[in-house]
Amino acid sequence: MARAFKIKVPASSANIGPGYDVLGVGLSLFLELEVTIDSSLAHETNDDPNNCILSYTKESEGYSTVPLRSDANLITRTALYVLRCNNIRNFPSGTKVHVSNPIPLGRGLGSSGAAVVAGVILANEVAQLGFSKQRMLDYCLMIERHPDNITAAMMGGFCGSFLRDLTPQEMGKTRNPIGRGASRTFWG
């Protein structure tokens, strides 16, 4: 049975005023993914070691230079990380991800943060993990340690966030494979 869904993640601006690495704002410029999963088309994804064919619109930032292998692209690498943390080795057979990305790369608009957020949401959706936004935010922060951009991309709007060290008790209980910190978030 085929499934299709879309993911839309905003660009962000951060380090606002005195809120260095704390304050961020989601913008109205969006990274968009169109995802289809159709096991009857599995033969089309066999060339990728993780069952995922990735494509970008020609208008996307970095179209000619962004990696298209699932184990090299930031979006799909992030998704694979989350999947593997949950004992899922690869994408479902026949997974296709088409990306439209107008966010300028390396220009201070949170392109890597948006890619990480999109990857975590992608994993949550393809594997139907049922994570809350807070849990997805935790995964994002394991990969991209800038809570200002990540939180604004995940939650949208004007956000404040910071990382705190985990207590020894939390370190013992957590399933966080990196275990370096937890986030606290507020937004409005």
UniProtKB/TrEMBL annotation:
Domain GHMP kinase N-terminal: 73-157
One of the protein's GO biological processes: threonine biosynthetic process
Protein keywords: Amino-acid biosynthesis, ATP-binding, Kinase, Nucleotide-binding, Threonine biosynthesis, Transferase
This protein's pathway: Amino-acid biosynthesis; L-threonine biosynthesis; L-threonine from L-aspartate: step 4/5
Organism: Saccharomyces cerevisiae x Saccharomyces kudriavzevii (strain VIN7)
Protein name as it appears in the record: Homoserine kinase
Any GO MF annotation of the entry: homoserine kinase activity
Class of this enzyme: transferase
Its EC number(s): 2.7.1.39
Coiled-coil region: none
Catalytic activity: L-homoserine + ATP = O-phospho-L-homoserine + ADP + H(+)
SUPFAM superfamilies, A to Z: Ribosomal protein S5 domain 2-like
Domain of life per record: Eukaryota
Known role: Commits homoserine to the threonine biosynthesis pathway by catalyzing its O-phosphorylation.
Similarity comment: family membership: Belongs to the GHMP kinase family. Homoserine kinase subfamily.
Pfam families: GHMP_kinases_N
InterPro entries: GHMP_kinase_N_dom, GHMP_knse_ATP-bd_CS, Homoserine_kinase, Ribosomal_Su5_D2-typ_SF, Ribsml_uS5_D2-typ_fold_subgr
Signal peptide: none
